[in-house]
Write a structure and sequence with these properties.
By secondary structure, the protein is of the alpha/beta class. 41% of the residues lie in helices and 16% in strands. The protein has helices spanning 3-19, 53-56, 59-68, 86-100, 117-122, 124-141, 156-172, 200-210, 214-219, 226-240, and strands spanning 43-48, 71-76, 103-106, 145-149, 178-183, 194-197, 254-263, 266-267, 274-276. The chain is globular and about 60 Å long. The mean pLDDT is 92.
Length: 290
Amino acid sequence: MSATDYRGYVERFLELEAAGTSLPQGAPADPPARPAARPDAPCALLFSPHPDDECIAGAWPLRLRLECGWRVHNVSLTLGRHEARRPARARELDEACRVLGFETEVLLEHGFHEISRAARAADAGAWDAMAARAAGIVRERAPRAIFVPHEWDGHPTHEGAALLVADALVQLGEGFDGWVVETEYWSTLRRPNVMVEATPSLAGHLLAALVCHVGEIRRNPYHLAFPAWLRDGARRGAERVGGFGSAAGSVRLAEVYARRRWTGGRAQPAPDGRLILAGDDPSAPLPETT
C-alpha cells in the first residue's frame, strides 16, 4: 500500500465531513422518539457552562433518560459572552433540550455574566451568592447525579463551572449525598473512570439536538467533528478506563467521564473504572447512596 492510498483515506474522511454541511440545521421537523420520564424517577442534574454543552457531554445523561426513564434537568449557567446573542441562544437551548427530552432553565434571566477562576478570586461575596443559587437548585432537584465539566477543562467558563458547583456542594454540606460526574471537552480528563458507549442512533440523537444551536455552529461548524470526537472517546476510553494494553473491542463511539461519590460536603476516593457498553444498564455505576 502506498502513501497515496493513505492520502486517499484522509481525503475521503474530509469529504464525508464536508458532506455534513448539507444536513439541515435548527430544530428537526421529526425529532427522535423518547419515552416519558417517570414522575418518581431519579434526577440527573447537568450544570452546563453554555448552551450546547448539554449536547456535547450528553451521551450518559441521554442514555439515563432513554433507557432508564430518569429525569434530566439541565441548568445553563451562562448564555455566552455576546449580549446581543443571548435571547437567540436561550431559544436554541430550549429547542435542543426539547429534542433530548431534558428539562432546562437558565440561572438568572440572562445567566451569570462571568464564571471563572479569576471571578472567584476577584469578588468572594458575589461568588458565594452564585454558589448559593446553584446550591438551591441542587436542594430543589435532589439529584442522584450531577454532571459538570472538570476543573481543568481548558476553557475559563468550564473551569469556573466546576469550581462553582464544588463550592455549592460545600455550602450544602450534608444536604447532598450523591454522585458528581465530571465531563470533558476543551481538555481531556486526567483520570476518567467511566466510558459510555454511544450507538450511531444515540450519537445521531445528540447531533440532532446540537444542530439546534444554529448561531454557534455557523460561527464554527464543530458539529461536523462531533462523530470524530465520539470516535476518539472510544479510542481513549478503551485504555484510559479499561486499562492500558486492553483491546479496543467493538466500541466505535463513546464518551468518557470521571465519577466520584460526594457526601458530607466532600468528594470521596474515586471508584474503579467502569465500561458501560450498549445494552448495559447505564444507571448501574450511579447506585443510590442512602
